[in-house]
Amino acid sequence: MKFVIVLCFLAVAYAASVEEKEEAVARSMEEAAPEQARACVGTKEICTEGDDCSCCGEWDMCDCNNPNEPNVCRCKYAMIYTRVKKMATC
Description:
Order of helices and strands: HHEEH
Oligomer: single chain
Distance between the termini: 44 Å
Shape: globular
Largest sheet: 2 strands, antiparallel
């Protein structure tokens, strides 16, 4: 039982560190190239349909399948396939 609790704690700590690292990278990207930083948008912001590169996060994709907002595309967190696809195309 203690092992499971320790494992859960480590998973939460890892997730927090990954998120902090992504925020630091985004901040440094804004400072280095402000025009490039404005070219993409963050998670849950409106994006360009069919263009996953318009979303800033490495794991974000542009999704237009939202029943609450028809014909509106927003960046959302996706799976490993999106990460690999963005590494190859963006």
